[in-house]
């Protein structure tokens, strides 16, 4: 993907115009089959999301006799890996989750993702222009974002109270103090699924948002030049966290979201006090506890702390989202299905099940989790929301960045090494 194309997918926006942000089941059939068959992949592999989407598919089939929606639910990382392989081989599902940014631009450049600008004009018209930007290339919309939100620390309010913590930390120094209080109370402070790399990488991403100005981030996204000192400082923020030794035992091999022993599972079951994760976390945790409630009323959230001396806007956030896209070779009925997925009815059910932060305005009031409802305000009042860097840059540069950050978590790379690896990958891609 050219730098010019990536620049068109630049993921930073104003408060009024938000830009952005889980065992495989079902049939693996790909697009290009019978015109009445729609293959659909998603990552809601835990309840209630898995069951809800199964019912959504059945409802669509009933309303469209002769249509067969073949649903495949899988863990998030499995889905990302399988989609990447599918795009390499040209064998992708009819409807799939598109994360936007550089990844989408690559898919569009390869001619594998359908332009929905005219076919879904009514649905697209309901979404704030800035929210759409992450899923547009050259002014055309190639996917319909259905959930967009921000990153932050999800925490167990009960464990914070046990440790005598009266308020969430607002600065990095306060975060260090909170970690110390939790350790003094024999509570593991933080879980991280570094085995999947991207959960660990979010610390560096947010470090960059706090240490770099918005102008610097914009410039770097356009030029792919990471020479500004603030990017090394982002890695120093990571080191500050690592030096406190806050993470769960075996965090370097811990998965992000799959199973009770994953980072999300450890938080959901009260084994740790907090986790840096996206807006999808409450829905993920619900599927990892026996009662289906996750942390329930013990769920708290706070933004990534401020960095003293950092040039980042205090109101800036990190985030991203998911959108429904249609393969270029998919039958027309796949477009109808995507439009149905964004309907008021389906988005309201999505919100009621705490599966994310809906983008359809008609679904906002349906959010049942107070923590998620509060995030809508954080999302909409952010000075800007920086799209996750791995999504923005695509697999080559974003993958190199994540790999280097994972090595830093393993004490095998320095903050400068992370920048050097990222710059080298960017230069090679050209």
From TrEMBL:
Signal peptide per UniProt: 1-25
One family name in Pfam for this protein: SBP_bac_1
Superkingdom of this protein's organism: Bacteria
SUPFAM superfamilies: Periplasmic binding protein-like II (SSF53850)
Keywords: Signal
Protein's name according to its UniProt entry: Extracellular solute-binding protein
Organism: Nocardioides oceani
């Amino acid at each position: 993907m050219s730098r010019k194309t990536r620049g068109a997918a630049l993921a930073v926006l104003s408060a009024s115009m938000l830009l952005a942000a889980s065992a495989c089941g079902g049939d693996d059939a790909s697009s290009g089959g019978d015109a009445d068959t729609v293959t659909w992949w998603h990552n809601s592999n835990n309840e209630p999301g898995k069951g809800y989407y199964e019912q959504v598919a059945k409802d669509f089939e009933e309303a469209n006799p002769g249509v067969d929606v073949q649903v495949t639910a899988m863990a998030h990382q499995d889905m990302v890996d399988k989609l990447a392989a599918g795009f390499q081989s040209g064998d992708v599902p009819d409807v799939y989750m598109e994360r936007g940014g550089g990844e989408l631009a690559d898919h569009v450049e390869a001619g594998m993702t359908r332009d929905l600008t005219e076919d879904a004009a009514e649905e697209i018209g309901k979404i704030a222009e800035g929210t759409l930007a992450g899923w547009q290339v050259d002014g055309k919309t190639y996917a319909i974002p259905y959930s967009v939100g921000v990153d932050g620390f999800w925490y167990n309010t009960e464990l914070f109270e046990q440790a005598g913590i009266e308020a969430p930390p607002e600065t990095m120094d306060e975060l260090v103090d909170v970690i110390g209080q939790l350790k003094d109370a024999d509570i593991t402070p933080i879980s991280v699924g570094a085995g999947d790399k991207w959960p660990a990488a979010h610390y560096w991403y947010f470090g960059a948002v706090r240490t770099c100005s918005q102008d610097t981030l914009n410039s770097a996204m356009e030029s792919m030049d990471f020479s500004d000192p603030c990017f090394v400082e982002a890695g120093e923020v990571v080191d500050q966290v690592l030096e406190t030794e806050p993470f769960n035992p075996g965090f370097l091999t811990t998965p992000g979201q799959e199973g009770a022993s994953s980072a999300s599972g450890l938080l959901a079951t009260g084994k740790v006090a907090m986790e840096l994760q996206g807006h999808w976390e409450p829905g993920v945790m619900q599927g990892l506890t026996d009662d289906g409630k996750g942390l329930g009323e013990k769920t708290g959230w706070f933004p990534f702390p401020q960095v003293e001396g950092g040039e980042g806007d205090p109101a800036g956030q990190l985030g991203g989202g998911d959108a429904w896209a249609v393969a270029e070779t998919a039958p027309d009925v796949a477009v109808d299905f995507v439009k149905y997925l964004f309907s008021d009815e389906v988005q309201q059910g999505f919100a009621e099940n705490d599966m994310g932060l809906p983008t359809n305005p008609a679904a906002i009031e349906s959010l049942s989790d107070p923590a998620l409802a509060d995030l809508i305000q954080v999302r909409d009042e952010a000075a800007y929301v920086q799209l996750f860097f791995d999504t923005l840059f695509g697999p080559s540069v974003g993958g190199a960045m994540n790999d280097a950050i994972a090595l830093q978590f393993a004490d095998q790379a320095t903050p400068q090494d992370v920048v050097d690896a990222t710059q080298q990958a960017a230069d090679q891609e050209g």
